[in-house]
Amino acid sequence: MSERRKAAKAPPQRSPDSYEMLGRNDRSYQERTSPPSSEHFQQLDPRDAEFVQHQSHSYNDVEYDQSYNNRALRPENQEYSDNGYDPSVQYNDAGYYQDNQNSNDFYDQPPPPLLPNQNSYYRPLPIPAKVLERHGSPSFHNVSLREPAPLEDSSRYAESVEEYDTESKTPIDPRLMPQVDPELSVLYDVSNAPPVDSRLYQTYQEQRMRHLKQVELTSGNLVVDCPVPDKVLKAGKFQSTHEFTHMRYTACTCDPNEFMNEKFTLRPVVYGRQTEIFVVLTMYNEDLELFNRTFKSMVKNITHLCSRSRSRTWGADSWKKVVICIVSDGRSKINKRVLNGLGCMGVYQEGVMQNSVSGKPVQAHLFEYTTQIYIDGNNAIVGPDKGTVPVQVLFCLKEKNAKKINSHRWFFNAFAPLLNPNVCVLIDVGTKPSGTSIYHLWKSFDKDQNVAGACGEICVDTGEGCCQVWNPLVAAQNFEYKMSNILDKPLESVFGYISVLPGAFSAYRYQALQNTTPNEGPLSAYFKGELMHTTDGNGGIFEANMYLAEDRILCFELVAKRNKKYVLKYVKSARAVTDVPDTLSELISQRRRWLNGSFFAMFYAIVHWYRMFTTSHNVFRKLLLFFEFIYQCVSMLFTWFSLANFYLAFYFLSQSAVIASQSTDPQIRSLDPFFGAGEIVTDIIRILYIMALITMFILALGNRPQGSKFIYGQEIAIIRFEARV
C-alpha cells in the first residue's frame, strides 16, 4: 500500500481562488456523495442548525476529539466510480492529504491507534483547514448514522479482537468495535485551536462542524440515533444497553393528527412496553429552577412506584410503565438554560435538529432518551447512587409557538395513540407534586372503572417560612385555593361532576377521552378551541370566550358522554404545590382569561343539562347531577350580580353614618365615625367607586395590563379602602 502511494501522482496544484476540490460545486464530488433519491436520504447540514460542544474519547490515556457530527465514514462503505476519488492516492503514509501546498494549511493530526494486524486502510481522512476557511465547504466524508450489522463471516477477525472481547469471546467485526471504529477516531488535532475565549474560537468550531452527511430515512422520516456524552453515560448504572447509550432524534414534518399515519413511532413501542401512566409537562419559557423542581418531583414519584413491591401493577421495573413527555411551546421561546439542563441529562442534542426533511418543513423536534440522572435545586447531578431509577423521557420541541392547547394535541393525538396508556396526567412546569401524588391519582382510576378524570389539591407556594404570604396578592390567592379545596371540589365530587379539573395538575382515563365519532366526543370538543382564536376560526363571540376555558368543556363532555357513566373525582391525598402570580399585572392577565372562560363554559354546561339523560348513569346519579346544575345556576347568578351586590352592601351600610351625621341628638351624632361628616365622606367614596369601575372597564378594552400598572394599582387601592370603610 505504501509503494502504491509513493508511485501515485500528486493532484495538480490550484490557485487559492480556484481551489474547489471539496466545494459543493465540484461535480465529481456531488456525483460521489449525492443520495440515490430524496425519498431515501436526508442531507444533514449542521450549518442550518446551531452547534453543539464536541465530546472527546480517551484511548491509552490519550484524549481524542470525538464529535458525533465529525466522524469519518469507513472507506469500505464509500462508493467510488471508476474515475472517482481514491484515498490511497491522495494521502501519504501518515494519512495526510498531499496537494503540494504548505503543510501549515493542515491540522497536524497523529495517526489513530490501530489493532494488531490492522492496516492503514482504516485511517481517518483529515481535512485541509485553509479550504474550510476559504470556502466553508463540506468535506467528502459521508457519515452513516445507521447502526451497522455484523458481517456474516467474521471468523477472520477473531484473532485481532480477542484481547478487546475478553467477556464474550465471540468473533466480532473489528469495524464495529469502538476501539477501532474510524467513527470514533480523531478527525482533527485540537492543539492548533485558538483559545476558547477568543473571537476566532467560534469560527473554528463552525468550520469543524461543516460536514455533509447522508442519513437513510426510515419510512420517509428522519430518525437518527445519537450516542450520548460519555459523562452522561458514566453517571448512570446501565452503560451498555442501546436505550441508555443513544438518544433518538425524530424530525416531525406532519400535523399531530397525522403522526401515526405518517409511520412515526416511539421507543417504548419499539421495545414492546405497555405504558400505564403517560405524563405531559407543558412548558413555555419557564426557567431552569422551575423545570428542575417539577422534573425532580416526577422522578421521586416514579421511584415510589418502583418501591411498591407488593402491588400487582408496580414493582422494581415499574419505570418501564411510565413515560414523561415534555412539550415546549416554541423553539425560540424556550429558556436556553433549560435546554442545557436537558443536555446534561442526555435528553437533548442541539446539532442534530433540522429545519426540513425532503423539502417538508419540520413542525416539531422529538428527542427520546431514558435518563438515569436529573438536576436538583442546587444544580447538582443526582444519579442512581441516590436511589433514583431510570426515567423514559420524550422531549417534544415545537418549532413554532402555538399555545398550550396545541401542546396537548401533540400529547393526545400524536403520542398517546401509539403508547395507548391507561392514565394520562397533565402537569404544568412549575407545579411540584408530592412524592406519592401520581400513585394516589392512579389509584382512584384503578379502584373505580367509571372514573374518567381526577384532580388533587393544589396549594400555593408560600416560599420558605411562608414569607410570600405577606404579599396581599399571594395571600388572597392562597385563601381562594383553600376555600376551593375545602368547600367546592369535595361537594362537586360527591355529585360526580367537577366543573373544572385544573390543567396544572389533573389526570384522565385515556379510554374515556376517545371520540364516539370522528367529529363528536371529548377530545374533538376540547380541540375545537385551537382554531377558535385564529383566522381560520368560524365561531362567534360566545364560542371564543367559552374556549378560553377548554378544560371545563372537557370535564362536561366526559360526564355527558353518550351511553357512558363516567364521573369525576377529587383526591385530597394527591397534593401539588404551584407558583401563583405575585404582581398585579400578571394576576389581571390570568384572571381576565379565567373569568371569561369559566362564565361562558358554565353557561354552556347549564344550557346542555339535558345531555345527562342520554348517559348510562343510574337514576340516583342523574338526580344528583340535576341538583348540581341547579346549584350551578344559583352560583352563576350570584357571580353575575356580584359587582352590584358589593356596591349595594356598601350603600346600605353607609346609611348608618349618614343618619348619624344628620341627627340633632348629640348621642346619635357620636355614632358617626367621620365626626359629623359621614354624609360627605360616603358620597365621595361612592363617586370614587363608580369612577374606578368605569376606569377599569376602559382599561379592560386593551390587552396589555403591564402597560397600566399604576392606574390599576390606584383602582385597587380605592376598592380596598371602600371595603375597609
TrEMBL record:
<dbReference type="GO" id="GO:0005886">
    <property type="term" value="C:plasma membrane"/>
</dbReference>
<comment type="function">
    <text>Polymerizes chitin, a structural polymer of the cell wall and septum, by transferring the sugar moiety of UDP-GlcNAc to the non-reducing end of the growing chitin polymer.</text>
</comment>
<protein>
    <recommendedName>
        <fullName>Chitin synthase</fullName>
        <ecNumber>2.4.1.16</ecNumber>
    </recommendedName>
</protein>
<dbReference type="Pfam" id="PF01644">
    <property type="entry name" value="Chitin_synth_1"/>
</dbReference>
<feature type="transmembrane region" description="Helical">
    <location>
        <begin position="684"/>
        <end position="702"/>
    </location>
</feature>
<keyword id="KW-1003">Cell membrane</keyword>
<feature type="region of interest" description="Disordered">
    <location>
        <begin position="1"/>
        <end position="112"/>
    </location>
</feature>
<comment type="similarity">
    <text>Belongs to the chitin synthase family.</text>
</comment>
<keyword id="KW-0808">Transferase</keyword>
<dbReference type="InterPro" id="IPR029044">
    <property type="entry name" value="Nucleotide-diphossugar_trans"/>
</dbReference>
<dbReference type="GO" id="GO:0006031">
    <property type="term" value="P:chitin biosynthetic process"/>
</dbReference>
<keyword id="KW-0961">Cell wall biogenesis/degradation</keyword>
<keyword id="KW-0812">Transmembrane</keyword>
<dbReference type="GO" id="GO:0030428">
    <property type="term" value="C:cell septum"/>
</dbReference>
<dbReference type="InterPro" id="IPR013616">
    <property type="entry name" value="Chitin_synth_N"/>
</dbReference>
<keyword id="KW-0328">Glycosyltransferase</keyword>
<feature type="transmembrane region" description="Helical">
    <location>
        <begin position="623"/>
        <end position="643"/>
    </location>
</feature>
<feature type="compositionally biased region" description="Polar residues">
    <location>
        <begin position="31"/>
        <end position="41"/>
    </location>
</feature>
<dbReference type="GO" id="GO:0004100">
    <property type="term" value="F:chitin synthase activity"/>
</dbReference>
<feature type="domain" description="Chitin synthase N-terminal">
    <location>
        <begin position="212"/>
        <end position="276"/>
    </location>
</feature>
<keyword id="KW-0472">Membrane</keyword>
<feature type="transmembrane region" description="Helical">
    <location>
        <begin position="594"/>
        <end position="611"/>
    </location>
</feature>
<dbReference type="GO" id="GO:0071555">
    <property type="term" value="P:cell wall organization"/>
</dbReference>
<dbReference type="Pfam" id="PF08407">
    <property type="entry name" value="Chitin_synth_1N"/>
</dbReference>
<keyword id="KW-1133">Transmembrane helix</keyword>
<dbReference type="InterPro" id="IPR004835">
    <property type="entry name" value="Chitin_synth"/>
</dbReference>
<feature type="region of interest" description="Disordered">
    <location>
        <begin position="151"/>
        <end position="177"/>
    </location>
</feature>
